[in-house]
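Milestone M4 deliverable, item 7.
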Amino acid sequence: MAPSITQKPTPKAKKEKIFHPDSRKAAQLGRTHLRKNKLAEAASKRNKKQAAQADVYGFFYHALPPEGVLTLEELHSVIREVWLTRNDVELEQERAARRKGRPKSTKEIKLEEIKLREMEEYRTGMEVPDLTHEATVELFRKWDQKEVTFIHLLRFLRISSADPSVAVVSKSGKHHTLQQADPLPAQDHDMNIDDNILSAPPSRFASTIMTMDGPL
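Output delivered:
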């Protein structure tokens, strides 16, 4: 007769603890869950903000001249004729598609708000990477167009449409090559504008123009 096989008892599944909704433990778990949700939401907003910043700086990256640097007047022209007008075609399409007497679409309203906000920012003082500074331009060319923290290494100018001849260094740049940089050169002499940037095809800026304002 074959020996009988003794089966090991199946371990009981661990019961999930259930806490009374008014207990301190339930309140603690609720606070932990809420904190995790808030942290996840904050991280999502931070990632979206960094992506938007990368798109904006990406525009100026694509505005870098093939060689050398921009003059201050050329930098103003890029902002005035390319940056501030990048949504004009889309805005006109929205206006043309709206039937007479109909309210503006959400997209049209947002495009108008973006344009007004950026024009006011440019009028009162807009902070941009210093594309007139050789060391900054050389450093900017090395950017991977993704890492926003790299931008903090660059020198920035504050310029405005109210006084185009004045440029103030708002951030000196944290990279060691900029620590001994020359002071901002005077811009009171006549400058001949190179039309290469302004006459460049839109495809040169397409990678940033298409995404910098996010979904509309």
